[in-house]
Each structure stands twice: as C-alpha cells, then as structure tokens.
Write a structure and sequence with these properties.
The chain is of the alpha+beta class. 40% of the residues lie in helices and 19% in strands. The protein is built from twelve helices and ten strands. Strands 1-5-6-10-9-8-7 form a seven-stranded mixed beta sheet, sandwiched between helices. Helix 2 packs antiparallel against helix 4 and helix 5 packs across helix 9. The radius of gyration is 42 Å and the shape is rod-shaped. Bound molecules: 3,4-dihydroxyphenylalanine (DAH).
C-alpha cells in the first residue's frame, strides 16, 4: 500500500472521528477542545503538512490537497456547531414537559351578569333590548315624562347638567340622564305600538359616594304598550321575573307609590332575602326590600310622544341593577363594584 493511500484512509477515519466529536461538544469550551485536538499545532494534519517535504515530489500535491480538504471541512463543521451552541445559549431549549402557562381568563362583571339576568327574564316574553344616549336633554329626562320644570318631583332627580351645545335646541339643556326612563320617550317618538322593550344602561346622579350611593349606577327600564295591556299583566310579568332572579319561593308585594310618569304607580318589594321577612338590619326591620318602581304609563306621557291616550295603554317599570346584585349576593357596599379589585370580582 502506498503512503498516499494509507494517508487517505487515515484522513477518512480522522474526519469521522472529528465530525462525531464536533456534534458531541455541548458547549463552546468542549468545542474548542475538539478544534485543538484535530487542527492544533500538535494535531495529525499539522504534523502531516509539516512532513510534506519528506514525501516524494509526486505525492506532495495529493497529500497536501487531502490534508487541506480535511482542514476546511472540519473548520466549516466547527463554525456551524459554534453558531448552533451560541443560539441555544441565547434561547434556552423549550422544555415541553413543563406545565403550560394558562393565560388568565376574563369574565363578565357582576353588574353585567345581573343586567343580563334581568334582561333575560323579558326576552322570552317578546321584549327587545334598546339603548339610549347617556348624554340626554332635559325634555326627554323630565318634561316628556310629565315632570315639569317647577314641579317638586324634579328635585328628586338631582342632575348633572353638562355644558355642551344642545344637539336639538328645542329639547332643553344637555344633561347626564338621571334614569333610563327617557329612552321610553325616544322609542315611542319613532315607533307605533305595540311595543315591548327593555332598556339596560348607565345613569348618573350627583350623590355623595357611600355604601349605598354612587354618582353612576345602572338601571333596567321596561315598557310595554298596546291597546289592552293592564296592571294584571304588569304584576304577573314582574312577579315572574323576580322569582326567576331570586328563586321560586320569593314573595312579592306591590305597594302604592307616586311616579310622575305612571298612574297608578307602585313600588315592588320582595320579602327580605336576608331574614325571609321576619325583620333584620338589611331590611330595616321591615321584612320587605324595595326592588323597583312601576305603573301604568301616564296619559301625559302618551300625549308627549304623539300617541292617543284613549287608544293605547301600557305599563312601565325601572329597577336599579346594583341594588339587585347586592341583594342577590349579600354585598354590603356598592363601591366594591367599581373599585376593580380582582379579589372581589373573581367571586362572580
Ligand atoms: N325612573 C325611576 C327612577 O329612576 C324608576 C321608574 C319608576 C321607572 C317607575 C319606571 C316606572 O318606568 O314606571 O327612580
């Protein structure tokens, strides 16, 4: 066997060895050791190249070429491995056996949930959801609802007036609506009976913030108008809704009251959810909790929207969403709803 052939086989073997060692290197230090071993000054290649002069002239070319091929191939491999190792140092390998990171799942705010539950009582009865503007005008919020300017009941609806140009100069001062009842007017103005609507939304009153008052809260308004809707319909529908919200055993009572926009008017109470009616601090020893206002739509309201009071009749009701949520869940402070403390919100 000629020296050249032997050398060739020697390099093939060396090449395989070096390739394995390169792949097996787990960090840059180990990789450098591979380089020193196979390409360093005491390595086979370098020794071979140094001994070139001792070879017969016709072998020098092929041997030199073989040794240089080996060198170049290994250098390329080392560079690739170096890049791969550096990469994995920067981005540690993903450990697929670790438990995944569960993104926090949102949920509906308790007020939204309560509002959905209230509205949900009426949808199967053919009511549709309508919304109205939070920035209202005095005529819709008061006058059209039979609350004239000089009337003392207007004081009961303390109001945030807003200093902006009125979108309709004939409809009074702009204000933040103090109840959802003006949406009754807006809907009736544009539509003919029969109608059945529920109106969820925000309302605003300049009340100092305390455990039971907020300058912003939510109401759900309801209105049903056709040619024969009566107080018995109103009673039946509201009682059914309250049983759905507070449980089938819920006792409901209608108590005469005054609202300018309904006649007759009533307040609806349920037997106290805390004591069952015996009397406690939640119900102020009364045994009953006031839940909402309601009544038969006043003829003046029908006139204001251009309906003939002799030809139509209807009922309306309005309830506070926070109050219902508080009674349903035993929450003692309305401010909790708006502080965005997840420890509170996550309970619903
Ligand atoms: N708007 C009234 C309030 O904010 C609630 C109300 C009472 C609405 C009687 C009605 C109703 O539609 O008929 O206190």
């Amino acid at each position: 066997m000629s020296g050249a052939q032997e050398l060739d086989e020697h390099f093939i073997q060396l090449e395989q060895e070096a390739a394995h060692a390169t792949e097996a290197a787990l960090d840059l230090q180990q990789l450098d050791a591979v380089r020193v071993k196979y390409l360093g000054s005491k390595s086979d290649v370098v020794t071979t190249l140094k001994r070139m002069a001792e070879l017969p002239a016709d072998q020098r070319g092929p041997v030199g070429k073989r040794a240089n091929d080996f060198k170049r191939t290994l250098e390329t491999r080392l560079a690739e491995r170096r890049r791969a190792l550096a990469q994995s140092l920067r981005a540690p390998a993903i450990d697929v056996t670790l438990p995944g990171i569960v993104p926090p799942l949102g949920r509906l705010h308790p007020i939204t949930q309560t509002m959905d539950a209230i509205v949900g009582c009426f949808l199967p009865l053919g009511f549709e959801i309508v919304e109205g503007p939070e920035l209202e005008q005095a005529w819709y919020n008061f006058d059209a609802l039979n609350i004239p300017a000089e009337h003392p009941s207007r004081e009961a609806f303390d109001t945030f007036f807003v200093d902006v140009p009125a979108s309709d100069p004939t409809r009074g001062r702009p204000l933040l609506r103090s109840h959802t009842s003006p949406v009754q007017i807006r809907v009736m103005q544009h539509r003919k009976p029969p109608l059945r609507i529920v109106v969820p939304g925000k309302v605003f009153r300049p009340d100092p913030l305390d455990a039971s008052h907020s300058f912003m809260f939510h109401q759900v308004e309801g209105l049903m108008v056709d040619d024969r809707t009566n107080f018995a319909d109103l009673r039946g529908i509201l009682a059914q809704c309250l049983e759905q919200l507070f449980g089938p055993e819920t006792r409901v009572r209608f108590r005469p009251h005054f609202f300018p926009f309904t006649e007759p008017s009533a307040e609806v109470d349920i037997a106290c959810t805390a004591c069952g009616g015996r009397g406690c601090s939640t119900c102020g020893q009364k045994g009953w909790l006031e839940i909402m206002g309601c009544g038969m739509v006043h003829p003046h309201v029908f006139k204001a929207v251009g309906y003939d009071p002799a030809a139509v009749q209807g009922f309306a009701f309005g309830m506070g969403v926070e109050r219902i949520a508080m009674l349903k869940h035993g929450i003692k402070d309305i401010r909790l709803f708006f502080e965005n403390d997840l420890r509170f919100l996550e309970q619903f």
